[in-house]
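Working notes for the structural subgroup meeting. M.R. asked for a predicted model of this chain before we commit to crystallization trials. I am recording the input and output together here so anyone reviewing the notebook later can reproduce the run.

Input as submitted:
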Amino acid sequence: MNELANIKPNRSPRKRGTVSLKKVSLAHGGGGKAMRDLIDDVFVSAFDNPSLAPLEDQARFDLGDLAEFGDRLAFTTDSYVVDPLFFPGGDIGKLAVCGTVNDLAVGGAKPLYLSCSMIIEEGVEVDLLRKLAASMAAEATIAGVQIVTGDTKVVNRGCCDKVFINTAGIGVIQEGCDLGADSARPGDVVLVNGLLGDHGATILAARGDMALDAPIESDCASLNGLVEALLDACPDIRFIRDATRGGLATVLNEIAQASGVSIEIEENKTPLREQVKGFCEILGLDPLYLANEGKIVIVAPPESADRVLQTLLGHPLGDGASAIGIVGDWDAGRVTMLTSFGGRRIVDMLVGEQLPRIC
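Returned structure, recorded in token form:
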């Protein structure tokens, strides 16, 4: 028997292509050498890892490796069309990684792998793509995930606004973790991990349409480390959700309707930056509906609420955390706010969109 038959050839690393043009052309989406060079130069160089390196049509994993982290797979996807692409505190690339990581984490999953698909408008600067890829790679490192597969499409000039990004993510849920919007019970406490509305206010200010100079930065951040700390400290947490589009108000209404409970929050305990309050007063916006990209809403049993709050306050991404309200049974599906003047107002779910293209 030939002993060499089972020996795999020692393949030398493939030489990666480079892009010499300054702007993306339709040829970069045509499936040939130009597209391969763009992928190599911009994306493979930034995301380089063993799962991505083969550049097959899919990333491949051993099921045994995934099972080490839990007994259920979590899978999510999201698309990002934010305008502008770069804003104080982040950019569309960082936002795409954070958003997908957070969507996994709030379900109790450990995020592991992401995909990255970009729809690029003809004429976009290649250096802009390099900046976005570098931003995504940096945030993936912070979050402890790998970007392992992706896709690139180029569309005619005017058919999209520079760059749209789609990311999907895979994570594993630890055994015994069962978070859900239908799990809230009367007496539970509602908490948030910090100041609300910063992202929505930042995006609007960055557009420059209102000629406002608001010193606000997006709260865009990967929250998987914070969520992991919370679940370690308090495994009986009922529910966690990141308050993105639709803001705090929409998340609270989803809980109230799914669990058949009422929720009342207190205006004086709901953390808002003074600049965001002023911003909203000028523009006639309600900060409860402003998007966040680094804030979570937590529902915890009353006996665990203080432990949850202390865990939040002890984490860098929990500065400004507060217990803002309580779950009740007096009017199922209703969310109200106790105002600073002692009255109550109904907090409905957002109808439509206060601010388009914020994420």
